[in-house]
Amino acid sequence: MEQINSVGTERDELSDFEKIRRIPYLFAFNILTAAALLCTVTSPLALFAAELGVPKDRIGLIGGIMPFVQVIAVIFLPIVMTFGHRRVSAYASLTRYVCLSLILAAPLFAGDADMVFWTLFVAMLGFSIFRTMAETAIWPWSQEYMPTFIRGRLTGSIALAYLPVALVGSVLVQLWLDGHEGIERFYPVFVFGLLLGVVAALSLFGLGGGRPRPGAVRGLDSIRAMRVPLGDRNFLLYLVSSGSQFLVYIVINLFILLFFSERLGISSGQIVLMAAFVPVGSAVGSVIAGWFVDRYGTRAIRITLQVLQVAMLIALMFVNADMPGTIFIVGLIFFAFGLLFPSAIGVGSIYMLNYVPPANKESYMTLAYMTDGLTAGGAAFLAGWLLEFLSGKTIVIAGASLGNFETLFALGAMIIVLSAITFALLREEGATGVRDFLGQFGRGSPLRALWGIHRYAALTSEERRRELTYGFGEAGSALAKEELIAALSDPSFDVRYEAIQSLGHLPPSPTVVRALERMLAYDGLVELQYAALNSLGRIRAVGSGEAIARFLDDPNAILRARAVRALGDIRDQRYLPRIRQMLADDPETDCRLAAVSALGKFRDEESIDGLLQIYRELVNDAGSAIGEPRSKVVLLALAKILDCEESFSREWRREEKVLGHRLPGLFSRLSDSLRKRSGEEHSRLLMRAAAALSSASTREAFSALQATRPFVAASGHPEAAIVLKLMDGTRDIELPHRALLILLALSMRPVLVQSRFDERQARSAG
User: Dmax of the chain from CA atoms?
Assistant: First the structure.
């Protein structure tokens, strides 16, 4: 195969640039083909046949010919391999519309249902044979002309571009059919569709590639090559999932029209108009599914769509003519059908394009094409026979009465469940699992993240990109992960900084951790390294301990401090001795305070003496601007070790807001705990101290607390020894801060309560 270059010759492979340059031809082919089918072989043909008196089972046979004939695709492989994909697909596409034009002769046999049936049958048979030949060439060819990295979005964009054509076309068809009488009113619709199909076929000549490959198998060898995909167990599993999904799609797409016509009494024109919601839903579903597929792979997206398909089919079983707003319900059902079914089939096709080896693409894709046709074609006929057989009958299952259409919908739901299970078993390298994918919608604000992603992809200034990356962090949704990781390479320093910070607000994942660890290697950009350390700690990146720990010896005190705090966040026990050492001998106070915070997070009881030592050093600076905040860092770490952090933080915030609001109450509860053990002496002492706490003095209250030491020492509480260390380590402080009094009161109370309990137990035993 050759590739177009500046002088018109071809090489072996198309570049992505050349593929993208020829995408307009791909849009033209798909949009015009879909419009042609809308005017011919879809709902107009089914209604046309019904008005000519063709029974339902035979309508099912006519509708099933097109996919059923796909089974003979293998006989066209030698032709495709000899003449190339482009020429075979283009000429076969032209010929199929010539064959389809025979449907215009069907009304000549009006009154003879058999002749009408055979006329339509022959027309559809010819159309289906050449359609099969065309698609036997097009499917493998698509691996050449569709860029790999945008296959999902490209599929969605084509569906979206077709949407206005489908809407306008459906409205015009509805107006025409409802505004005229007689079977001849179908003629203009069919002729216009046939002309569109011819133009669509000609547009295939504009796509690149598609020539015979040098060295590729020819003749009967191309058929024998089918043994390769037949020996691929993973691909055979895909065929089961794909065929069963396509089966249900064909059946529901064909007979849902008759369901609405017979059960709900909706006119042909209204059905055609409501059917316009199918391409609307298909466009929306294809855009959404394609966007997600390019980011997360196919498995999670396909299975999610199929779960929703099952829900739709079950709901469809309860639709009846007595429901209010029937026409709106029908429109909603058509929309949901378009949203869920075509997009799921498209997702499966993308999996196949990504999975199939290029050297054997014809064999693999022909087998898939044949399997889809065999299952769907046979199912359409059997479904029509089933509807005719069950007409007027009722099936009772578990007390529920099911008619012929309801039975069909129930069987479809069961088959979709089978399809979803088999697709879940497929191998897909690098794909996101279903649970992980859905989990992204359960945390943060996914809608806000999706809106931000849309705006981020637009033309934006540095300031706007910075705001959006910051907003991704506030949204807290993993959906924005790809944008934030890409923003790490933004030319703006501020955007990169905000991206690093925002990654720390996302759920942890291997890709996020790797991206943040790469930022640690930006030596010289201290702010970015600092932000990366902070984010790794925030998301509890337990596997990043070694990458973080290399900053413990960094000459920059800010990075050392941040690394210590991050290690405390992830609780990496390997570096606990090193952090204890930093608490004792790091020359920078900020680093020692970072070690204090980390040791508190570790709840390291062995460090209590060292924490008390640094607290005594800092408390002497309590009158300065920074002494008090620094000393509170130590008290908070001690509160974590004593397992009373939440109470300490709450009581201190309230006490700081209103002086004397909380401390007197804490002392009062301590007094109650002491009353039965020590009589009234110590209890009154604590009560007087509580009263004094309404003023600025804390000396009397501190002395009263220290006087309770014998009772703490006599307690059998497991934390009594730690509380004694805290009391002894702070005994010599002359002007204790209120935060220290709160910590002492909170830590002493459970110990003193234990003392009272022990006494009661002793008296009971005596």
Answer: 116
Q: Strands 400-402 and 395-397, how do they pair?
A: antiparallel
- Confidence check: pLDDT of 202 > 80: yes
Whether residue 508 is predicted with pLDDT greater than 80 in this model: the reply is yes
Nearest-angstrom CA–CA distance, 266 and 257: 9
In DSSP notation, 186-221 reads: GHHHHHHHHHHHHHHHHHGGGS---SPPTT---THH
Residue 266 has pLDDT above 60, yes or no: yes
Give residue 24's region: left, alpha or beta (phi > 0; psi -120 to 50): alpha
What does the pLDDT average to over 662-687?
70
Distance CA 383, CA 415 (A): 13
How far, in Å, CA of 293 to CA of 312, rounded?
22
Q: Which segment of 6-20, 48-62, 261-275, 693-707 scores lowest on mean pLDDT?
A: 6-20
Residue 490: half-sphere exposure toward Cβ, Cα within 13 Å: 27
Contact of 593 with 633, CB cutoff 8 Å: yes
* Helices and strands, number each (H, E), in the chain: 38, 2
**Residue range 392-397: average pLDDT?**
62
Distance between CA atoms of 203 and 90, rounded to whole angstroms? 8
pLDDT of 754 strictly over 50:
yes
Most confident of the ranges 84-88, 95-99, 177-181, 619-623: 95-99
Amino acid at the residue 43: S
DSSP state of 402: E
Of the two residues 304 and 681, the one the predictor is more confident about is 304
DSSP H or E run through 764 = helix 738-765
b/e for 206-239, b at 16 or more Cβ within 10 A?
Answer: ebbbbbbbeeebeeeebbebbeebeebeebebbb
Q: Name 402's bridge partners.
A: 395
Geometric angle at alpha carbon 647, from 643 and 649, rounded to 5°: 105
The tokens describing 67, both together, are: 């996919």
Chain-centroid distance of CA 503 in Å reads: 17
| 591 pLDDT tier (thresholds 50, 70, 90) | very high
Q: Is the pLDDT of residue 380 over 70?
A: no
The string of DSSP letters for 34-50 reads HHHHHHTTTHHHHHHHH
The three-state secondary structure class of 380 is: helix
Sign of CA dihedral 133, 136, 137, 142: positive
- As a residue count, the chain comes to 766
CA-CA-CA-CA torsion sign (424, 427, 433, 435): positive
177: tokens are: 């059919």
Evaluate if pTM is beyond 0.85: no
The full 3-state SS of 67-136, as one line of letters, equals: HHHHHHHHHHHHHHHHHCHHHHHHHHHHHHHHHHHHHHHHHHHCCCHHHHHHHHHHHHHHHHHHHHHHHH
Tokens standing for 132?
A: 């099969």
| Rg, Å, the chain Cα set | 37
What the block records as the tokens of 312 is 């739709």
H/E stretch holding 257 reads helix 233-264
Per residue in 152-173, is it b (16+ CB within 10 Å) or e — as a string? bbbbbbbbbebbebbbebbeeb
DSSP H stretches of helix in 586-715: 589-602, 608-619, 627-641, 645-657, 663-678, 681-692, 699-706, 709-713
Task: Give the pLDDT score at 464.
Answer: 85
The rounded distance, in Å, linking the Cα atoms of 42 and 40 is 6
The 3-state secondary structure of 264-300 reads HCCCHHHHHHHCCHHHHHHHHHHHHHHHHHHHHCCHH
pLDDT > 70 fraction of the chain, expressed in percent and rounded = 87
